[in-house]
């Protein structure tokens, strides 16, 4: 009887530790005092690099946009991670490399994308699995189709 209760306690302990939450930080660690020290009209690319380091990424359409991204998430067992805190520091430069603007946003800009179910909506006729699998048999050798031989 004592062995069963010990085994039950160990099993319960293992089950509870499997459901433990995980916290994770990804990206840049933003020091608020250093971020506030970046001043438009005073700083340039070199001084921003010395103060904050290299950016997380630069703008896709304009390399004079630098982004420093920091994100904290929590996750319980096998569920999807949930964002608890996010900071995006956007530093914009002019063509000469001088800071023109510094903007900071939080997790309010995170977009929730909800998939449209388990099927992809398409235009046109609906075909079954077997129609898709066997539908092209015999159509290649018909005259007038691309790839067919005409005599």
UniProtKB/TrEMBL annotation:
Pfam families listed in its UniProt record: BamE
Coiled coil region boundaries: none
Transmembrane segments: none
Keywords carried by this UniProt record: Membrane, Signal
Keyword field contains Signal: yes
Gene Ontology CC terms: outer membrane
Ranges where the Outer membrane protein assembly factor BamE domain occurs: 27-101
Signal peptide limits: 1-20
Name under which the protein is recorded: Outer membrane protein assembly factor BamE
Organism from which the protein derives: Sphingomonas xanthus
Top-level taxonomy: Bacteria, Pseudomonadati, Pseudomonadota, Alphaproteobacteria, Sphingomonadales
């Amino acid at each position: 009887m004592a062995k069963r209760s010990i085994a039950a306690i160990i099993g319960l302990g293992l089950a509870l530790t499997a459901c433990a939450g995980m916290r994770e930080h990804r990206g840049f660690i933003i020091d608020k005092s250093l971020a506030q020290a970046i001043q438009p009209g005073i700083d340039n690319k070199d001084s921003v690099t010395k103060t904050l380091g290299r950016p997380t990424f630069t703008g896709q359409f304009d390399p004079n946009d630098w982004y420093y991204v920091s994100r904290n998430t929590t996750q319980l067992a096998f569920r999807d991670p949930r964002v608890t805190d996010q900071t995006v520091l956007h530093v914009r430069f002019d063509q000469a490399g001088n800071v023109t603007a510094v903007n900071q946003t939080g997790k309010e800009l995170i977009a929730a994308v909800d998939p449209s179910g388990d099927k992809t909506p398409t235009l046109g006729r609906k075909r079954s699995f077997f129609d898709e699998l066997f539908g092209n048999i015999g159509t290649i050798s018909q005259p007038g189709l691309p790839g067919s031989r005409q005599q």
